[in-house]
Amino acid sequence: MSWWFFTSRGLGFRELYTVVLIAEMSAPVSKSNTTSLSFNLHKPRI
Predict the structure, then answer these.
(1) Which range of residues forms the domain containing residue 35?
(2) In a domain, 46, yes or no
């Protein structure tokens, strides 16, 4: 699942962050993975 795909569809960072929060709630086992994804969200786009 690529975040670039979502941003290209016109979703903002607020929607992306909401998806990350939902992912953390629904899959606490892979919380470390979603945490790294949320960290990538804060990286400046090239």
Answers:
(1) 3-41
(2) no
pTM over 0.70: no
- Terminal Cα-to-Cα distance of the chain (whole angstroms): 19
Q: Which of 25, 26, 30, 43 is nearest to 3 (CA)?
A: 43
- Residue 26, class by beta-carbon neighbours within 10 Å (0-12 exposed, 13-18 middle, 19+ buried)? exposed
With beta carbons less than 8 A apart as the criterion, state whether 38 and 17 touch. yes
Query: What are 46's two structure tokens?
Result: 């090239």
- For 24-38, the pLDDT digits (tens) are 777 655 555 556 666
Contact call for residues 17 and 7 (beta carbons, < 8 A)? no
Q: Indicate the residue type of 8.
A: S
